[in-house]
Design goal:
Length: about 140
């Protein structure tokens, strides 16, 4: 596996590329959550730009409850929050040198993977993309 240097950070090329895909998917999800919140609110709201993805999902859920949109409440509870939790697990993972001498990531809690493989990182990205695609239309 080719190694690359980004600035002064050494890492596995595929691991860094996969992390980038997951982050991009999270950024896109944040964008659509902000848009749906604004649509439900009836005005363009830039306040959520400064919020985390989790806070934006919580704001969308609150707006959905206040506007009687149960499909959005359901999406937040069953799809949006779980996708964000998996993203948080990846983002807050811990870098280490594995026994195979490769740079790796492990979950920061016992419920998270002992080592994130490329496929596990891409699974997180896929879940974020699926959440983006499944959010209800207004």
């Amino acid at each position: 596996m080719p190694k690359i240097v980004v600035g002064r950070v050494h890492g596995e090329a595929s691991l860094l590329a996969d992390l980038g895909r997951a982050q991009w998917a999270a950024a896109r999800l944040h964008h659509v959550v902000r848009d749906r919140h604004s649509q439900l609110d009836g005005r363009r709201d830039n306040d959520l730009f400064g919020e985390t993805l989790g806070s934006a999902i919580a704001a969308l859920r609150a707006m959905a409850e206040s506007t009687d949109r149960p499909e959005f409440v359901r999406w937040c509870d069953e799809i949006g929050r779980p996708a964000n939790e998996r993203r948080n697990g990846l983002v807050h993972s811990i870098a280490f040198t594995a026994s195979d001498r490769e740079q790796a990531l492990r979950g920061s809690t016992p419920t998270r993977p002992p080592r994130y493989t490329s496929n596990e990182i891409l699974d997180v990205a896929d879940e974020l993309v699926a959440a983006n695609r499944s959010i209800p239309d207004v």
